[in-house]
Design brief:
CATH topology of one domain: Rossmann fold
CATH architecture of one domain: 3-Layer(aba) Sandwich
Shape: globular
Helix content: 40-55%
């Protein structure tokens, strides 16, 4: 009698890696259009979904995601999306197989930054949403200012003032996630733009050093909105990361 060969541990891990669901979390005032290039290419090899943040705080947004998410998944978040991803990690570490944090600050918002955000929220309430958003994402930091701001404006007009206010408040009140970083025993990719003034490279270096299995990638010439400014480079980095070995701990 001929017996079928039992799959090796490595083969099983590769199969799981290729098919694990991936959840993409957009940044402040962004939606699935932020991830257009990544959705097109990453979904050729695995299930990929975008989850739009809903709720009044990062905690609420994370709880909503966990209620809707598969039993186990990989997380990719940018900015606000990264803040939510870290809260998901804090609440449901056993459900996350790996995490990629793009343009993400794990520390609470500094008082002076929170005050500036409050001024932008006042402007949005007064009908100057685009002005507020232009201050949120300085065009001078962008690798492709014209194309990036055009797409950002599309998303902002679709989402509206109410979403801006709720998401801004969530960023303003985000918790300190240093403990979460230190206990995250899973593959982690920390990616940032070399020209990002909102979350500069030194903050990404800090995050990567805190995470037991964190590794950092800086895209020189890009700013905060990496998937719009350097779509091919972001997709390539995520594809390599998602294909990487899973940890057996």
């Amino acid at each position: 009698m001929t017996r079928g060969r039992r799959p090796s541990g490595r083969g099983m891990r590769d199969r799981i890696t290729m098919t694990e669901p991936v959840i993409l979390l957009p940044g402040l005032m962004c939606d699935a259009r932020l991830w257009a290039h990544q959705l097109l290419h990453l979904s050729q090899h695995r299930p990929v979904m975008v989850m739009q943040p809903t709720g009044a705080s990062a905690t609420d947004m994370a709880a909503s995601l966990l209620d809707q998410a598969p039993s186990r998944f990989a997380l990719v978040g940018l900015g606000l999306g990264g803040t939510i991803a870290l809260e998901v990690l804090r609440r449901g570490l056993d459900r996350v197989s790996r995490i990629a944090l793009l343009s993400t600050d794990p520390l609470p918002e500094a008082p002076q930054v929170a005050a500036a955000r409050e001024a932008r929220m006042v402007a949005a309430r007064a009908g100057r949403l685009w002005q507020a958003l232009a201050e949120e994402y300085p065009p001078a930091d962008m690798a492709n200012p014209e194309g990036t701001t055009a797409r950002l404006r599309e998303m902002a007009e679709f989402l509206g003032e109410g979403v801006f206010l709720a998401q801004s408040r969530a960023m303003q009140r985000r918790p300190d996630q240093q403990k979460t970083l230190r206990r995250a025993m899973l593959p982690a990719l920390i990616m940032g733009g070399g020209s990002d003034t909102l979350v500069p490279p030194r903050r990404h270096e800090f995050v990567a050093k805190m995470m037991p299995f964190g590794r950092m990638k800086i895209l020189e010439g890009a700013g905060h909105l990496l998937p719009l400014e350097a779509p091919e480079a972001v997709t390539a980095a995520l594809e390599t990361f998602l294909r990487g070995p899973m940890l057996l701990v």
